[in-house]
């Protein structure tokens, strides 16, 4: 800066002396000296602003068909809870569930195998099946007494939290990429099942219940994902089948009330929620402009 | 009034010069003053330094300036007054308080370096204001001590000024090279006020250390003593070998005269006059009369017979190699060393005062050494003088001859006694040597067994048991004693190299004293134990029953029954409970078998007390460890299980999240697990999580009881450390005669009541003398400084204890140990570290048998020759 003793220079100051007629038009360049004040905003400043460039227009039926994925998973969890309540409160034999579960699992495996999607060898699958079943058999006495001294209320609370987390972390994406469902949600469901199983009275029921839970949470998601990508009609049939079974379970444990509420929930998820989403689309307000980071454009082969 | 004082270590090269400007009075010298640069000429009551002080501060770590409040005093090399205005070319005065800060007052006692230098002078300015200023002097408390510490942050702020000052000093030094400005004289306080010859060292043209004054002799006779070959110090210098490595014998000689007329000894550098009750006054008798001032340092001659000495460095009580080895072990010290290294590197890039030459550093060491030998040399010279005088003149007086005769008789008695002692030693020596050798071989065998490490990682016996550790310590001490004794004896013959002799002496007698004490206390404790054997036995019985059997069982049963509402896994609790109960039951039944031996055991403990109180204590510590083996094993088992469970839970938790630890890159990767892996992992994870509290409860119980046992043992072992290592002898010496434990030196400005008058008189005299009006000689004055030894502070005698407690704190009160405890890992107890204190008085490697043998043989030869010598003396005299 110029000191006191040096003579003042006759150069115009940009900020302090406004010039009524600037010679050059303003350019959006910071590194160029321009005859404008620092806080000057030109009319052209936001000319490149764009809104809602990439907003997708949803169709109602596509949305509702996609929602069947969620419905199918939530129904699985609900079905499992129904099964536990039926065993714990109404003394149904858990072996029955284990048998029917294994039966359906075998059918599903053979269908899957027959349609030629099997990448692992049958002996390896058989081996791991044997391993898991025998481990379960060995551990079920320990598991039975695991939470004996804990009160039931805390067990219910734990399992509810675990199932909620499972629903949130589940992988709902469509596509045949992964054979194994994401680890965390499976683990959460299995540990919820173990916690619940430790409430049961006999070793055999613990074993059967855990076997059923493994089939439902470990193997069924693989099958349903495959089916979804293989034939959508099949997926719809499977979902309908699950809904019906869950409705039956609800009817058994909670009467018509529970049945009605569940049906209403399913229907709202399938029909009302997509409509609501589409109605909310008009509030969408995305802003794009040249200041955004550039997006690479990938050409499809 | 402008005043300057100078700190001067050596005359030969540039030295830190402290120029102090002060107004007449300073009441609050330590109050920091924010406005530093330009003090008022008058009425400013603070002490000010011109720029140079910062250098003084830097150079002398813990410098004390005391009572500096007057007239210019310059060193031989520092510029005299006429050049003084040039030191501060910018005319800048800087308050001492800005440079030093009030913080300097604390923490600069600097006992570690022991270096306190005081300087200053006292002299009224000639002129009209003389009387007024003298009045002010009286009011000023003498003990105005300014400590200049080694805090460097706040010191240097004007490099350019400092360096221009430095250049000025250099120039002035060059100019005055041939004309020393200030002569420094060390003057013994016990110098009598008679006529006589002064003998001492002349270290340089202007640096004297006066050793003694001889009144009954004249200069020429004294010269004869120094030049003739018959006397101790003259001629062939039989003792030169002895003195040669202690000091430079060529410096020793006649330095001046006291109260003698001018014509006698005219060529001697010092001419001193002293009246009774006043301080000596000096003048140069050398031609030219260039001297402008004297700095007189009074010192009290350390009595070598009483093992007193001055030391610049505090005496170290532990062995040097030990202390360095100990410090090298510590990681913290490594960090410290690194930091110091960095600091020194930074200093290389910083302009920090003057570089100090070796000569400067050593000069202080040189004259301290000379002062230390003053008394001994005095004795030797007195003998020589007496011899010469005897030859010169026969005894005139009967009284004199009687005195001499009595003296000779006393000498003869002493000779006879020392001969008797040597004779008995001579007779007993071979028995002693044989005994020592037999003992040494036996102890070597025992030591080998004790220190034998079985292959692998098994610890040696002495690391397991406190008793054996104690035995090891005692044996090693006893092995070291003969060698220590021989070394001491040899050094005593060699005119005492006190700086090495005294610590060795203290160490030797300290360990002897401690052992004696230990035995005395031990005898009392042992007798008490034997007398009250029944009570002790019943108490031990009670303890075993109450704590080790019933108490433990009850605790475990309580754990098995949902302790405090904790929801433990019933089956696992039952399993653990049964297991631990079985172990405890087994051990208590074993103890039941041993119980009949208990009275005998206590009796044995009591007996062992007669070897030293440390042995019963060590035995009790071992007994406690033995009785609580079951707790230790339960602790080990539960800790293992707990730790295993924690580590597996950690890896299973990673699996639960779909992650896995990558050991190669030391990070956590995400993985796609197979379904069966996932299922199994989740199963185990849930299982272990629910079982964790149960295991934790058991672990905590046993860890807690183990901790209690460790604390009890630690208390016992620290009492062992106290008994084994307490610096008893050093403390006794400190109380008896603190000069035997020097911790440094201190300079103090001495201002006596009658000084002003003295100085005045002297001045007048000088003015009379130099009637030609030489300006330099009118500026001459004398500064009186007292040199005092500083005793070793008691705190530093316990340095080892502080070190140990710091080390223990670092090892056992750290976060690392807490985390080890919480994760159930083994917390190592490093016995060797704890015991390093105990061994600090012993050499790292014990002396071998061969070495001991050769030393003993040499010793016997020495004693033999002594015997013949003394025999010859006794027979020859009689």
Characterise this structure.
The complex is a heterodimer of chains A (301) and B (878). Chain A is mainly alpha-helical and 301 residues long. Chain A has one domain (60-278). Helix content of chain A is 61%, strand content 1%. Chain A has seven helices and two strands, in the order βαααααααβ. A two-stranded antiparallel ribbon of chain A has the order 1-2. In chain A, helix 1 crosses helix 7, helix 2 runs parallel beside helix 6 (203-230) and helix 5 runs antiparallel to helix 6. Chain B is elongated and about 115 Å long. In chain B, helix 13 (466-493) runs antiparallel to helix 18 (614-627). Chain B starts with 19 loop residues before the first strand and ends with a helix. Chain B has 878 residues and is α/β, with parallel strands linked by helices. In chain B, a hairpin with a 7-residue loop joins strand 10 (270-273) and strand 11. Mean pLDDT of chain B is 70; it is low at 1-157, 234-238 and 753-779. In chain B, strands 11-10-9-7-8-6-12-16-15 form a nine-stranded mixed beta sheet, sandwiched between helices. Chain B has a three-stranded antiparallel beta sheet with strand order 1-2-4. Chains A and B meet through helix 3, helix 5 and helix 6 of A and helix 20 of B. Chain A: It is a multi-pass membrane protein. Chain A: The chain crosses the membrane at residues 60-88, 94-112, 124-143, 155-172, 206-223, 230-249, 255-279. Chain A: Its main location: membrane. Chain A: One of its GO terms (molecular function) is glycosyltransferase activity. Chain A: InterPro entries: Plno_GlcNAc_GPI2.
Largest sheet of chain B: 9 strands, mixed
Helix content of chain A: 55-70%
Would you count the extended β strands of chain B for me? Answer: 16
**Number of alpha- plus pi-helical segments of chain A:** 7
Rg from alpha-carbon coordinates of chain A? 31 Å
Strand order of the largest sheet of chain A: 1-2
Low-confidence stretches of chain B: 1-157, 234-238, 753-779
Q: Biggest sheet of chain A: strands, sense, closure?
A: 2 strands, antiparallel
> Separation of termini of chain B?
72 Å
